[in-house]
Design brief:
mainly alpha; 0% strand
Length: 190
């Protein structure tokens, strides 16, 4: 299919030469050799899966470079989306204010119970950051993840808990859950 790489008569030197060209093409666009190698390996797998669809052997090299170019574009799009999401999260966190301690005690009693229904990594993130007051960077170190990953995890955990509270408490949650009187809270008190 990819004549420069798969041509058995060309010898291993030509195959290695082509591999280096493909890798160089990716590396100069990604500025990360390990990422370039990963994308190149994925492209090789994709090319093997699509080998029977290529009818013109001369066009296979151009097709393979198109596969590489599209993989680079996809990577940059995903990175851009991730970057914008983290910027949004950072802006949200910047304006976040911790409620006074006396108000904290009046917050819906359902939250503790509902937090246990979350995925364990979400529950842990909320417990450490929200309840224990551990900074996100410190939590990231404890969990063995990057600070960005920890921030995203806390954000997603908050969203998941918010959905659970809205589903369980309904109108009470819409009104801010102060002096909780919803059915789950009454059941806990009984």
């Amino acid at each position: 299919m990819i004549s420069h790489v798969d041509d058995a008569d060309a010898g291993p030197e030509r195959s290695l030469h082509s591999y280096r060209h493909f890798l160089g093409f990716l590396e100069c666009r990604l500025h990360d050799r390990a990422l370039a190698e990963d994308i190149l390996q994925d492209a090789f797998v994709r090319s093997l899966e699509k080998a029977d669809t290529i009818r013109d052997e001369d066009a296979s090299l151009a097709w393979f470079y198109r596969v590489l170019r599209n993989a680079v574009i996809d990577h940059h799009r995903r990175s851009s989306v991730r970057h914008r999401a983290l910027e949004g999260l950072a802006a949200e966190m910047k304006d976040a204010v911790e409620p006074p301690h006396e108000l904290r005690d009046a917050i819906c009693t359902c939250i503790n119970e509902l937090a246990t229904t979350l995925k364990p990594e979400y529950a842990q993130a909320l417990r450490r950051v929200e309840v224990d007051g551990v900074p996100v960077r410190e939590f990231a170190q404890e969990a063995g993840i990057t600070a960005n990953n920890a921030a995203v995890r806390v954000h997603r955990a908050r969203q998941a808990l918010r959905r659970e509270v809205m589903a369980a408490c309904g109108r009470c949650a819409e009104e801010g859950c102060g002096a909780c009187a919803c059915a789950p809270a009454r059941e806990q008190q009984a």
